[in-house]
Structure formats: structure tokens, C-alpha cells
Amino acid sequence: MNRLFGAKTNTPKPDLNSAISNVDTRIESIDVKLSKLTAELQTYQQRLSRMRDGPGKNAIKQKAIKVLQQRKMYEGQKDQLQQQSWNMEQAGMMQDNLKNTMATVDAMKTTQKELKKQYGKVNIDKIEKMQDEMADLMDMGNDIQESISRSYDVPEDVDEAELDAELEALGDEVDFEGVGGLGEEMPAYLQESAGVPSFIDEAPEAGKAKEAAA
């Protein structure tokens, strides 16, 4: 059976990159041949430029024509191979873009699944209840602060007339205390201008005053 249909080979199929590499290698070999043919044509051209017309020159021309035909054939093959390489490179770029697109789609699907899992664990009702409780606690705190900072037994109904009367009374008290304060600083009997106290009938004599002092 294997002789009739051939045996199956397990060799891996060439991928796109290897195919492009093979084509590029063939193009390089053709470039080498083209370089040789071009150099040969240049040699014939130099020989023909120095020869006179005749059978020998015609024979060189025939050889140059064959070399030129070979060079055109290789140039055609090179163009075909370059086009094939370019087509495969385009296919490779499309393949890479498709791989990148599929990787992006897979990443988005995975992210979507994770987001669904995370948001599925969130209870909106519990969050709203927590916000309401926080608002109630804030209001309670404000009430406590207001209650603590409240003043005790301070009349609030004081008008401008009562204020003016109070200020006027304070001004009178200040004036009265100023007048009385001068007398309290130094008693009258200690001042230099004070005379003999009123409870003494006569002033003492000078000699008796010295004896009393001694």
C-alpha cells in the first residue's frame, strides 16, 4: 500500500516565515547570477568597442545577446519572487493583526467576567443604608455640639435703649469713683496744706514740743 499511495510523512508543514525566508534566499542567489551576467556583458561591450565589423565581432554579439536573454529571464524570475515575498509578508501582517485582535478580545472578555464578579458582590441597598446611617450620625453629632456649646441663663432680649442706659450708668460710676479716689490716696491730715487738727484748742509751744520729743 505504501508503494502505491506513498507513506505519510510526519514532517511539519512550513510556516509563513520559513516560506518567506526560502523565497528571499532564492532572490539572493538570482542576484548573484545577475551580477555575473552583468559583468560578462560589460566585458563583451568593451571587446566590441575595440573590434572592427566582421565575423568575429558578429560572433561576440551573438554571445552577448544570449547573455542578455539569460539576464532578462533571471530578472523576470526575481520580480516574480519579490512579488511572492511581498504577498506573503502582507499575509503575515494580516495574521499578526488578527492575533493581536483576538488577544485584545480575549482580554476584554476576561475583564468583563471579572467586573461582573466584583460588581455582583456589591449590594446597592447596603451602601444606601450605610449612607443614611452616616447622615444620621452627622446630624446627631451636630446636635451634640450645639447642645454642649449652649450658654446658661444669659438673657438674649437686650435692646439698644437698655444698652445705652447701662453704658450711661457705668459712665456715672466711673466719674464718681474718680472724684472719691483722690481723697482716699492721701488723708487730709497728712497733706502739707493741712493745719492744726480741729480737736486741739491751742498750738503747743516750741520748747515744750522739744521736751516732749526728747
TrEMBL record:
A GO BP entry is: late endosome to vacuole transport via multivesicular body sorting pathway
Q: Which GO terms describe its cellular component?
A: multivesicular body
Q: Show the coiled coil region(s).
A: 27-84
Q: Which residues cross the membrane?
A: none
Q: What are the UniProt keywords, alphabetically?
A: Coiled coil
Q: Which domain of life is it from?
A: Eukaryota
InterPro entries, alphabetized: Snf7_fam
The answer, when asked if Zinc is one of the entry's keywords, is no
Coiled coil: present as a keyword of the record?
A: yes
As for family, the record states:
Belongs to the SNF7 family.
Q: This chain belongs to which protein, by name?
A: Vacuolar protein-sorting-associated protein 60
What gene is this protein translated from?
Answer: VPS60
